[in-house]
Design goal:
Helix content is 36%, strand content 25%. The protein is α+β, with helices and mostly antiparallel strands. Helix 4 packs antiparallel against helix 5. The longest helix has 24 residues. It is elongated and about 60 Å long. The N terminus is likely disordered.
């Protein structure tokens, strides 16, 4: 009985905290939309998107990857009036916005060594591409050239991703064609600008369609970080 009472109290406390946090916004939904749609926010949003698109284009122009689909997820979140528990800085701002861009490319799995080498070579001279012929890059290339061991270790799964400077490049495993490890279709989110934007270009393209056309798919994940923020003081950054 005592344990049941404690459990009920815990649930009540959780519900109370949830209710408080949902009504503890630093700004109203109306003000949040006004801030997210301000001239300063629009300018910062456009600048962030241009920067990410240039990176996406750099891979298409300078590597053996063929760009097929671009997904943009752009969201603004409101802060809290105050934060009594689990402080994470959410009570220091009125609103902040960030953007994520995911690009899907097709590639020939039978020329994987050439594909990887083209990415590393482009990265050696283009700062927008963080993957280069460093130790990690050379090990990955040697593996696909049949000259080196699996970078993940003996008996490990086929490599399928690299990460650098916040950018993540993921691809369909070439030697392990387990369907569960293939690049997945992007999720569809609500498009409600300026608070939340969701773009899919072109709208009709799919990951499975790219795979059918080229043989395999690469996915590039990019993040702008917080491109626009309004602090409690009204200062923007």
């Amino acid at each position: 009985m005592k344990s049941t009472a404690k459990g009920g109290l815990a649930v009540l406390l959780l519900l109370t905290m949830t209710a408080c946090s949902s009504s503890n916004r630093a700004v109203s939904p109306k003000e949040a939309r006004a801030l997210a749609g301000s001239a300063q926010a629009v300018e910062a949003r456009q600048q962030a998107e241009r920067k990410l698109r240039k990176v996406v284009r750099a891979y298409a122009d300078h590597t053996r990857l063929s760009l097929g689909l671009v997904v943009v997820q752009d969201a603004c979140q409101t802060g809290l009036r105050k934060q009594a528990f689990f402080q994470d800085g959410s009570d220091t701002y009125k609103i902040k916005c960030s953007m994520r861009m995911t690009a899907y490319y097709g590639a020939d799995p039978h020329r994987m060594a050439d594909v990887i080498d083209s990415i590393l070579t482009a990265g050696d001279s283009d700062p927008r591409i963080p993957f280069t012929h460093d130790d990690t890059g050379r090990g990955l290339l040697a593996y696909y050239q049949g000259k080196g061991p699996n970078p993940n270790g003996r008996g490990a799964l086929d490599p399928s991703s690299v990460f650098a400077w916040g950018d993540t490049l993921t691809w369909d495993p070439v030697r392990d064609r387990n369907a569960k490890r293939l690049v997945e279709e992007p999720l569809t989110l609500k498009n409600d600008p300026p608070i939340q934007r969701f773009l899919r270009e072109p709208a009709s393209e799919t990951v499975s369609g790219l795979r059918k056309k080229y043989g395999m798919v690469f996915r590039l994940d990019l993040n702008s970080g917080d491109y626009y923020e309004v602090l409690k003081s009204g200062r923007r950054r």
